[in-house]
Specification:
The protein is 52% helix and 18% strand. The protein has 7 helices and 7 strands. A hairpin with a 2-residue loop joins strand 1 and strand 2. It is α/β, with parallel strands linked by helices. It has one domain. The chain has a 5-stranded mixed β-sheet with strand order 2-1-3-6-7, with helices on one face. A two-stranded antiparallel sheet has the order 4-5. It comes from Trifolium subterraneum (Subterranean clover). One of its GO terms (molecular function) is O-acyltransferase activity. Pfam families: WS_DGAT_C (PF06974). InterPro entries: O-acyltransferase_WSD1-like, O-acyltransferase_WSD1_C.
């Protein structure tokens, strides 16, 4: 199964968030979380214990990708778009903004992942060396934005002040990256049985 870099990064971050939840306390250890991805609520279905994730870290990425791809191409995405267009025509942009704000407010994580420019850009003849973005002013607990720019990937994490231990979260995401890398290397070193 072919995975893109963005798929792997999404899986690493979701896995890191789950590791973080496991380490915080007994309540978050067994809690489910909801992520808003590109303004569509995506419940990262089927809670997996940390023990299961350690056994199958690459499957976690593949399963996350399958869920996101399935929901991205589902009829509900088109239906929500049609309903939002209708709401815009009937009640105006303020009503649509309130619906979106409320949806984000009932989620744990807002996640946005963009493939950025592959060639260098300039602004008023000044070269742009790097590019990143984040959403501000939202009610969510954690915002994760990922963007690539000329073969460089930038990940931005924004948290509510005092709600998330950002150092521990960073550590858990790095740990998820190490576990997934190790699992991928073990698979690549396994001789093909043909």
């Amino acid at each position: 199964m072919v995975q893109t870099i963005n798929d792997v990064v999404c899986g690493i971050i979701f896995y890191g968030i789950r590791l973080y939840m496991e380490e915080i306390n007994e309540t978050t250890k067994t809690s489910n979380s909801t992520a808003v991805v590109m303004l569509n609520t995506r419940n990262i279905g089927g809670y997996q214990s940390l023990k299961e994730m350690h056994k199958h870290p690459l499957e976690f990425i593949w399963e996350s990708r399958k869920i996101i791809q399935r929901k991205r191409h589902s009829f509900s995405v088109h239906l929500i778009g049609l309903l939002m267009d209708l709401e815009m025509k009937l009640r105006g942009p303020e009503a649509v903004a309130k619906i979106i704000y409320d949806t984000i407010g009932h989620s744990s994580v807002l996640f946005s992942n963009l493939v950025g420019p592959i060639e260098k850009m300039t602004l008023a003849n000044h070269p742009i060396n790097g590019l990143y973005f984040t959403a501000s002013g939202g009610p969510e607990d954690l915002t994760v934005t990922v963007i690539s720019y000329v073969k460089t990937l930038r990940i931005t994490l924004k948290t509510q002040k005092g709600f998330i231990n950002e150092h521990k979260l960073k550590f858990c995401i790095e740990k998820a990256d190490e576990l997934i890398f190790k699992a991928a290397m073990e698979i690549s070193e396994t001789p093909n049985k043909n």
